[in-house]
Every structure is written in structure tokens, then in C-alpha cells.
Amino acid sequence: MWSFLVASVVLVVIPGPDQALITRNALSGGRRAGLATVFGGASGVGVHATAAAFGLSALIAASADAFTALKLCGVAYLLFLAVRTWRTAGHDEVAESDAVEHRSVRGFYRQGLLFDVLNPKVALFFLTFLPQFLPRNAGPAHALALAAIFGVTYLAWFTFYVACLDRCANWLRRHRVRRTIERATAGALVSFAARVALERR
Questions:
Q1: What contacts 21, CB < 8 A, 6 or more positions away?
Q2: I need a labelling partner for 191 at 20 to 30 A (CA). Which of 21, 138, 141, 152 fits?
Q3: Residue of 182, 167, 154, 187 lying closest to 44 (CA atoms)
Q4: Minimal CA–CA distance to 35: which of 197, 169, 157?
């Protein structure tokens, strides 16, 4: 379990597509938007972890049609977010009224959720990563316990990351760095979409 925790910390901290999306939303929508995206991403990771624990991810990986459908949906969503990020770079997305702000927060959560649920690389990650740390004849409960450790690690790191971004937000606006970062994030999302499109079972 300690080996799994160390591996989880390393994997979560390494920059990847989740960090790109969280960066984009935290800069455009503020701390609440960033945290909503984090919790959405953690929920999406939980969906794949649960599916892997009960063998559903193996079924998706074994079915060419299911895997291709999930991959195409993931690529389309990544490209949609990339275009939206490029177009709104440097602008605040969260409106001033409370009602619109609450809807926006739910929208950011939904983005994080769909971002990971529609990513076949996450499904394959849990399908290949979790079994390496499971004892022989381990049941779903053991796999879910490890998945929970990964989820807590994910939440802890990205909550800290969003807090750091929030502290730097005014400086980034003042020095016009934010627009550059958000457009670089859009490019990263396109790159991740290309990698997902080339993913094989």
C-alpha cells in the first residue's frame, strides 16, 4: 500500500491533461471554478477506478467498438475544450450574478467529470496500474481501497495547486501572462486529443 501511495503521488504530480484543464478553469473562473474542476476530475477517476475494480474496464478494452466510441467522444470533447479555451483566453467566464456563478461552478464540475470519464487512457491506466499492487485473489474491496488512496492523493495535490494559482492570479493578469498560459493550455489540450486518438487497446 505504501508503494502504491508513492507511485500515486508521482503520477498525480507529473503534469498531464487534468492539470491543463484545471489550470485553464482556475485562471478563467477563479478558485471555485478550479476546485469544482478538481472534484469533477476526481469523480471521473472514481468512475474508472470502480469500473476497473469490478472488471468493467476490461470489457471496454476488449471491445473494439466500445473502446473506439469512448475514444472518439474523448477526442471530440478535448478539441471542444481546446477551441473554447483559445477563444476565451484572458477573459473571465464566471458572471457576476450569484445564480449564473452557481451554474458555472456546476458546469466546471461537469467539465472535470466528463474530461476523465471520456478519456480511454484513464480506463487503461487503472486496468494496468492497479493490478500491479494487488495481492493474488484480491477482491473488488481491495482494489477500491487502493483507488480511494489515489483519489485522495489527486484531491490533495490539485487543491493545493489551485490555491497556488489563485494566489498568483492577480500577478498573472497584471503582467498579461494569463492569456499566454491559457493559449498554451489550449495547445496542450489539442496535443492530448491527438494522443488519445492514437491510443490503442
A1: 37, 41, 81, 111, 112, 115, 185, 189
A2: 152
A3: 154
A4: 157
Domain boundary assignment for the chain: 16-197
Neighbours of 9 (CB within 10 A): 16
| Prediction pTM value | 0.75
Q: Which of 185, 181, 200, 191 is nearest to 75 (CA)?
A: 191
Around Cβ 189, how many Cβ atoms within 10 Å? Answer: 25
pLDDT tens over the chain, length 201 residues: 788 888 889 888 988 888 888 988 888 788 899 999 999 999 998 888 888 777 765 656 566 676 777 778 878 887 888 888 777 765 655 444 444 444 578 889 999 999 888 887 787 777 777 777 877 776 778 888 888 888 899 999 999 999 998 888 777 666 567 677 777 878 887 888 787 777 665
The C-alpha atoms of residue 172 and residue 167 are separated, in whole angstroms, by 10
